[in-house]
Amino acid sequence: RGALRLILGDHLSRDVAALDGLDREHDVVLMAEVAEEAGYVPHHKQKLVFILSAMRHFAEELRSEGIAVDYVRLDDPSTSGSFTGELTRALSRHAVDRIVVTEPGEWRVRAMMDAWAAASGLPVDIREDDRFFCSRGRFARWAEGRKAFRMEFFYREMRRETGLLMQGDKPEGGQWNYDADNRKTLSKDRVLPPRQRFAPDAITAEVMELIRQRFPDNFGDLAPFGWAVTRVDALRALDHFIADGLPSFGDVQDAMKRGEPFLYHGLISPYLNVGLLTPREVCLAAETAYRRGKVPLNAAEGFIRQVLGWREYVRGIYWREMPAYAETNALDATRPLPWFYWSGETDLACIAEVVGDTRRHAYAHHIQRLMVTGNFALLAGIRPAEIEAWYLAVYIDAFDWVELPNVHGMVMFADDGLLASKPYAASGAYIDRMSDYCGACAYDPKIKVGKGACPFNLLYWNFLAENAGRLRGNPRMAMPYRTLEAMDPARRQQILDEAHAFIDTLGASQPAVAKTRD
Ligand code: FAD
Ligand code: DLZ
Ligand code: SF4
């Protein structure tokens, strides 16, 4: 008898642990499109198309190798709609003596898996997901005994361990981090590289039709869909980025521009997260480009830090701290998510732009996520669980292990500084400096209070005032608090009153499925 090997939608790597030691004669691979996964948040339509189409392509690849794949489609009339149900049904179709699976990317699914042995009466081999640089055990050793974690120190250990951008035991170029070089603004006349898109093939077109019919009201445009859904195309996307994006990736990494959602960013997170690319190969590609003189060091280092540093760091935190992590709310933020996160209908031009990019592409780059939609949610005191559900739904690369620490920790400071040493709170001046958004806005980032004042300015001071009890003692927040305290009391009161009046205008988001404008 063989094994039933379950491959989930983010396990689409030929060398994923669950396929190790596969016996073509006796084993069966099970893949299932299930309503429960499609529905735990109202995913962007392109995210649904991407995952389901990539799953179908991966199944075809396995079949072409002579591997037996039992594939259940979302519209199969007899489907149970859940992983547990599909596993149970599959066991009645196949005579197997064990179940093999790779650990999932979500605590929720991990809890399901833990019940499978008892439910099936078969041994369940849940294998560690070894597609990361840092195992869960390795991260736990690093974190042991530390009161707060700092990415920079973790990253240096990862550099030493992997040898990436190292010269012996010294960092390449003498510095670990070249971020200071990476905060340039975009000049108006800069010509951005056209970004590669992949036309939908027949499989993707069929999935698009399924999603159009089944999820008409989910957030986001369905077409045009230009994401890669196979490893071959994902590798093409990587090559394109290394050649055309990476050379300028560092310099303007934090810039934002109207009508230009991609700039020099990699657009590779969905491929990394479902397994079409590996973190090791993308870091090696960047390092090789640097060693060949094709990209400057600040670009290669900046990119490798995101993948080897941040990506591994947030994953380590997720698995070490869950499930309690998701429940904390250090700043007691309880306001509902404004409706404009779904509709984009707001006169705050920066929010409208980022929500618009997100609706069109299921993508926004890091600074848009952190400093526009994230910053607003932090400053306005939105309930962490509501903004987390939004991020998990709307981005094509969103899986709980990576989305949650970024939103809960980095954006909302809901973990009381475990992940980041201070909240990324910023007024309109930051957005104005790093983007051209304010030029198209009803508000003025230079106006602090009164007619035309940028709401980010009002909310910024109000955020500091509301959270003084928790943040005043943070040494990294000392300067803004000194400014707040030095303000003329009448002016400060006016700012706080206007901030509250603005907050009162924010309509609450409607739950579950969001209507789009398309
Ligand atoms: P690039 O800018 O080209 O960066 C290269 C790669 O670095 C990315 O592909 C990604 O794999 C990695 N990376 C960069 N920053 C981070 C980070 N903070 N955490 C983890 N990996 C990182 N990333 C996701 O993959 N899924 C998410 O659900 C997600 N949610 C986020 C939510 C918020 C509020 C914020 C601030 C960031 C979030 N990120 C998330 C991180 C980052 O924004 C995306 O990885 C990035 O925008 C993806 O686009 P790219 O491939 O063009 O990235
Ligand atoms: C995100 C997602 C979606 C929308 N659909 C499926 C699916 O139908 N079948 C599947 O195996 N995986 C899907 N996924 C990805 C899973 O939610 C993902 O594997 C978990 O989030 C990881 O724990
Ligand atoms: Fe955003 Fe304020 Fe600039 Fe308008 S003025 S785009 S609200 S930062």
Automatic annotation (TrEMBL):
The keyword Manganese does not apply. Pfam families: DPRP. InterPro entries: Crypto/Photolyase_FAD-like_sf (IPR036134), PhrB-like (IPR007357), Rossmann-like_a/b/a_fold (IPR014729), UV-DNA_repair_photolyase (IPR052551). The keyword Oxidoreductase does not apply. This is Cryptochrome/photolyase family protein. GO terms for molecular function: lyase activity. Keywords: Lyase.
